[in-house]
Amino acid sequence: MTSPPAAVNKRPESSHMSPVADMKPARMPPFPGWWAALGPGIIWMALAQGSGELIWWPYLVAKYGLGFLFLLIPACFLQYPLNFQIGHYTAMTGESIWQGFIRLNRKFAIALWGLMWISFLWFGAFASAGGTALSAMTDFPSGWSMRSQALFWGYLSIAVFFIALRFSRGIYQLIERLMFSVAAITLLGLLVACTHPDVRRHLPDFSSALFWPQWPTGRVWQAEDATKLLTAVTFAGLGGFWTLFYSYWLREKGVGMAARHIVKPDHLEGWTMPKSEDPGAPLKQWRRFLWVDSGIGVVGNLLTTLMTCLLAYALLFPEGMLPEKYQIAVVQAKFFEVQWGHWGRMLFLFVSAAFLADTWLTTIDAVCRINTDMVRQLFPSSRGKDTRYWYHRFLYLFTGITLVTMLLDAPGRLIQFSAVVGFAGTVVFSGAVLILNHRALPKWGHPANAPGRTAGLGLGFACCTYFMLAICYLGVQLKLW
Fold first, then answer.
1. Which residues partner with 112 through β-bridges?
2. Does residue 64 lie in a domain region?
3. How far apart are CA 86 and CA 434, in angstroms?
4. CATH at residue 314
5. Would you tell me which of 29, 75, 112, 161 could form a disulfide with 233, CB atoms 3.0–4.6 Å apart?
């Protein structure tokens, strides 16, 4: 685990998280420039591409045509204010968003932490989903079933990434470079694939369906797809508890007060700014950066999803080919195959495998960081060991858990279960983020630390929308309508 580029004197560790007693004078560092600061939003976009773009939205379009496409743009932009506000807390305080939850209410933070644990017992499914692509690409080990081959490649990819995480001295830099490379290849490949004549001719109908639903003739809604629809909406960006990872990437990048926050990797505690200090011009620059960086994740993710949906409508929908079970990352290979034939198919399978496997990599890294953070904040005796010690313990634990849970079901069903639990968490913690930034933070520090009215209205709208989606989903599941 690496430390941010700048630091101040280390303060003594305390056994509490008092929002007042912890305050230390510290000035908001100057903005270092766009090239130096950008990065977390790109990781956000790339991690999101490993779920919604490659699996769930293509599934819905392949099965129901353009019937649900009108939900895509709102679903993506619904996460924009939440992303910004999660990042805003970290930029203003140098703390993780989970430390903010503890400051807000310790019992609430512990309950939310427990829900997060349930959500992240199943993310090994992303590695086995990547394994389905490598299985189709290699047909190795020969003679094995598709399930067995997918699990073999899933376990192999986990082994490679586990070694990288265990022995790397610059984990954030590794993740940032890897995710940027895979995202760039996928974006370019999808863009070229969409220029094929067989795809372009569907563009007029596709464009109009973005704003007005067009239900296909003869297709009947199946209630068992409600969870897939919720998963698609939740993962239209980086949904559920995954959204909270953004806070840790900003800390590792040294955004805002995070640049002054950590001296050594074994020091996690932070502070809020004192009431007497006006953050001044740097605050405006950092706030502008957060809007742009969050926007890169949201808009980049939207563009990629639009292209996969267009390709799914042109190539999968007419043939009724669905990405599911142990073909969950395989049938989409037609996206590149239509432009480059056999080698295009191979390229797509390789890239999708990389995306889904490094979703496991990025997720386990962030999950280990969160759990290390929470253990050290909640249990003072744990601070006798440094963060690397706890990070490695959680790395062993969650690697073992995911190796087991991968065996329980096909990857798609496990991802859906994780998404439902994560969505429940989103309904809860989005309201907590709103309270934290707009009520608590201005009291703990300078009033200028609040994100602003527009950001507050945006997150308030998102909170209400998430709550209504939860009610609708429960109604469908309980057959109330």
1. none
2. yes
3. 9
4. 1.20.1740.10
5. 75
Does residue 292 lie in a domain region?
Answer: no
Which ranges in 142-280 belong to alpha helices (H)? Answer: 146-167, 171-193, 197-200, 203-209, 226-234, 245-253
pLDDT at 184: 83
Range of the domain at 363: 37-213+226-258+307-477
pLDDT at 12: 34
What CA–CA distance (Å, rounded) separates 130 from 353?
Answer: 4
pLDDT tens string 436-460? 999 998 888 767 778 989 999 999 9
Q: Helices in 312-410 by DSSP H: which ranges?
A: 334-378, 387-405
Distance between CA 350 and CA 298 in Å, rounded? Answer: 24
Cα–Cα distance, 346 to 354 (Å, whole number): 12
R_g over Cα of the chain: 22
pLDDT value of position 282: 80
Span 239-250, pLDDT tens digits = 789 999 999 999
Q: Tokens 């195959």 correspond to what residue?
A: 337
Q: Is the pLDDT at 20 greater than 60, yes or no?
A: no
CB 49 within 8 A of CB 192: no
Distance CA 251, CA 258 (A): 5
Closest CA to 273 of 39, 437, 92: 92
Residue 275 has a pLDDT of 46
Task: Work out the number of other CB atoms within 10 angstroms of the CB of residue 378.
Answer: 15
- CB atoms inside a 10 Å sphere around CB 249: 26
Structurally, the chain folds into a number of domains equal to: 1
Q: Is 380 in contact with 12 (CB distance < 8 Å)?
A: no
For residue 385, being part of any structural domain is answered with yes
